[in-house]
Amino acid sequence: xxxxxxxxxxxxxxxxxxxxxxxxxxxxxxxxxxxxxxxxxxxxxxxxxxxxxxxxxxxxxxxxxxxxxxxxxxxxxxxxxxxxxxxxxxxxxxxxxxxxxxxxxxxxxxxxxxxxxxxxxxxxxxxxxxxxxxxxxxxxxxxxxxxxxxxxxxxxxxxxxxxxxxxxxxxxxxxxxxxxxxxxxxxxxxxxxxxxxxxxxxxxxxxxxxxxxxxxxxxxxxxxxxxxxxxxxxxxxxxxxxxxxxxxxxxxxxxxxxxxxxxxxxxxxxxxxxxxxxxxxxxxxxxxxxxxxxxxxxxxxxxxxxxxxxxxxxxxxxxxxxxxxxxxxxxxxxxxxxxxxxxxxxxxxxxxxxxxxxxxxxxxxxxxxxxxxxxxxxxxxxxxxxxxxxxxxxxxxxxxxxxxxxxxxxxxxxxxxxxxxxxxxxxxxxxxxxxxxxxxxxxxxxxxxxxxxxxx
Length: 456
Fold this sequence. Notes:
Elements: H1 2-19, E1 24-25, E2 30-32, E3 38-43, E4 63-73, E5 81-91, E6 98-105, E7 111-118, H2 120-125, E8 130-140, E9 145-153, E10 160-166, H3 173-178, E11 186-192, E12 197-203, E13 211-218, E14 222-224, E15 229-231, E16 239-243, E17 251-257, E18 265-267, E19 281-284, E20 289-292, E21 300-307, E22 314-316, E23 322-324, E24 328-330, E25 339-345, E26 348-352, E27 363-370, E28 373-380, E29 384-395, E30 398-401, E31 406-410, E32 414-421, E33 426-432, H4 441-445
Parallel strand pairs: 1-4
Antiparallel strand pairs: 2-8, 3-7, 4-5, 5-8, 6-7, 6-9, 9-10, 11-12, 12-16, 13-14, 13-15, 13-17, 17-18, 19-20, 20-24, 21-22, 21-23, 21-25, 25-26, 27-28, 28-32, 29-30, 29-31, 29-33
């Protein structure tokens, strides 16, 4: 039964947040009950910021029941605006000359204060009577987070009311319909994939307000991608061009009016452009670590697979599956040209083979002729054993052995200089292992020199 009550309460709160009708006024002002004459004037809030000890006769409950709501000021011929409607109850006392009401924006730290003064002769006659004060001239913005305080004048310590308040946002039917900050919410865009430019046009635009537009990557918040652009309210052209580096599913267009606490409107039109997500593969040959980190939030299953020559099917490697929306890392990986990474989401699977084109060489070899010797130099990032042989190429793809095998071991990040007797025109070098210099096994196993005729 308790659970049912909680669920009903949450539904009512949600309904009130989005659908409640906001009262409309044509003029804002101050009113006091009990026939008390009162008037207000702006205040800096500085002179009343320090409190004094209250007289013994003054109750700490002289101020109570402050209530805050939102009203909409709508004057014919002008845009509507939002104001705080602040109500408080004060017990009149000869030690109190008035009230100070202040609002502080917790987003911008800007404050507004007003002093409320009573007619002294009349208030003394009604000493102890409760008077209700209503003030609705503090203008606020959509979705603003406000801290409201009500103090006595003079400011007596511990005689104070305070409350946090959230102004309705554009989801409220009245706010979304009548407040200008919510009307500039439609983007038209065009993508030039060749130049990597997104042209953005903003409609329902206010002519007297500037408008900001930017690209961002949406994670928990929308993170900047480059600088924002400004559309001037006085300009007739309401479009800007924004450069991007990759079309990612979390790339969004965001726009907002150039006013404090303006609500930001986001459009994320590239949710199905997931192709670029799988390109961010990094290999560290020193640590033999293969890693992938998503550029956007994505639920994906990652595993290593072996690309088959016969049908290009990628056969999964056992015990390599990782489920993660963050960084995925594999240790002690050999850079085999058919070693690939498979990404699987609810939209399908993608296979990326990072070593197929030799982007991550694990070892290198170079040769030089010195007198009757050919020097072979190996540089390897990993521990490996190389085999060098001398042969006579009889056909394009075959080589007849005429010498003997020469083996050499290369340690961790070590250079080796090894000399082979120069006897015939071609030298071939092979690497016995699973890691190839440039991803091409044929090329790595038969690394050929120029004809010896050019060396004599």
